[in-house]
Amino acid sequence: MKPFEYTKPKTVREALSSVTKHSHYIAGGTNLVDLMKKQIDEPDKLLDITNTLPDQIEVKDNGVVIGAMVRNTAIAVNKAILESWPLLSKAILKGASPQIRNMASAGGNLLQRTRCPYFYDLTLPCNKRKNGSGCGALKGNNRMGAIIGYSDACVAVHPSDMCVALAALDAKVNIRKADGSEETMNFLDFHRLPGNNPEKDNNLPENALITSIFVPKNNFSKHFEYLKLRDRESYAFALVSVAAALDMDGNQISEARLASGGVAHKPWRWTKAEAFLKGKQATAENFAEAARIAAEDTAPLSTNAFKVPLLKGAIETALHTCLTNKA
Amino acid sequence: MKHSHSNAMSMSRRFFLRSSSALAALSFIPNSVKAFYQDVKEKFFVKKQMIPIQLEINKKQYSLTVDSRATLLDVLREELNLTGSKKGCDHGQCGACTVHINGERALSCLTLAAMAQGKAITTIEGLADGDNLHPMQEAFIEHDGFQCGYCTSGQIMSAVACVDEGHTGSVEEIKEYMSGNLCRCGAYNGITEAIQQVAK
Questions:
Q1: Which keywords belong to this entry (chain B) (predicted)?
Q2: Closest CA of chain A from B12, distance in Å
Q3: What is the ipTM of this complex?
């Protein structure tokens, strides 16, 4: 690890005014400390923001505000979240390990790097690590790679499970910019696709801080599922994951939400499939058609064509489970 | 072929002469120049920062000065001689370094020591009550919850937390909530049985 200066600001204002060109904020540290050990990230200053950001979960009339410092476990076991946003809890518990969930902050979960094995190996080319060096995964080992939304520059996928649920639930991200002003971003606009600048994972303005995440009230707490398919049963990244949520009126679908992890550079919403399901009966045929519509837009890489049928099956299964899932 | 070979030989001879004379010249550089180099280095490169910190480990207070880069694991093992917590992967993948921070299990290899200040830390050394082992330690011995023992302190710290959290409803639940601790000897069945016994 390269030497760095450690400071602990007491307020958000102090944190924002202490940034330098190569400084980083640190909260849980579960991703950043690892990247620093591997010398993939080499900040000259760390601003410990654990004392500056809210760590409360506040239920409001129109939704819930999750402070950026709330640890992942604390969100997953929160009574209000379990009651009204159980999809979020279920997704979080499918991610990482209990130790890491205890450490990782809500804001940090959003900011963990979109990554692939080439990003982590300094001896291999990676445009995300060093733009212009090439993408080793494009024609190399891309089994874990994207099947939609990628570019020739980068085929990495966003590893978060929590973010897939937040994408499905139309969350919003509250941020405080370096100049002190506040802004709210739609969750779906927060992460970005690689294009020609894969070194940027998201649209958070430079040195801005995530202060909280807002999840609106919804009618999805009775029919939901987070299905994560991976190489081993626990503590592994998704090959494909599906967050599914249905608002049911009898056997008719009033509204559907479908999002996936493990398929793109950002948590992916299957909006066409959602539109198809709206107003339809909850039947096996309609679920299969929704899965087909989603898969239609995918274009797998050289070694991950298996992800497409896996995705179709996962969407169908998750939708079926929605009908029987009891929160 | 022969020509290029002899050429390569003469190149290397030339290289040897050049580099050895360069090395000899280096020793004649006056100290003032070396000091100037140090000044430049200090100006442009971040020096390592030593920070005075206070840690509360196993209900004991420690005051020490650590490198800003030091992880809690390194401080436990290298500075405080608490070598029960093990360094397996050092990248948060194996769980061998698991400790409790404010009563919750966490990875000491991904925790900067400076960030652990003001928190109550418990390591494997803090579990037993004098000569009386913690029930989980007893259960691991009784059920052969280890073979080589390297992952064991992390497993036990995680297991104690697993029981505290109440994730012991079934073998499947125990396995899910112990998935952050790898055991390459494969003592998982013994570990699961030990946890079941303590959870009763």
A1: 2Fe-2S, Iron, Iron-sulfur, Metal-binding, Oxidoreductase, Signal
A2: 28
A3: 0.96
